[in-house]
Amino acid sequence: MEWTSIIAIYVLFWVISAFIILPIGIRSHTESGVEMIKGQADGAPVNFKPRKVLLYTTILATLAFILFYFNYTNQWITVEDIDFFGSRERMGQ
Question: Is the dihedral of CA 81, 83, 89, 91 positive or negative?
């Protein structure tokens, strides 16, 4: 696998991990019982901590990428394992 492919795939894992981590632990003003500032959105978070989100996102993305890379090199799960409908055979591959 090329190093550029490794970086691109890791970035994809990182972005997906960010969307998974972002909503965890976020509380709104009504959930926290904190008074809102005039003009503030109802869903604005009270306790958003970007460094914590970045750390957890990086940890999750790294673990997921390590699993992906080991599967890529060791071929634990292949296309044939997940092709339940025999589409590769119908396409003549």
Answer: negative
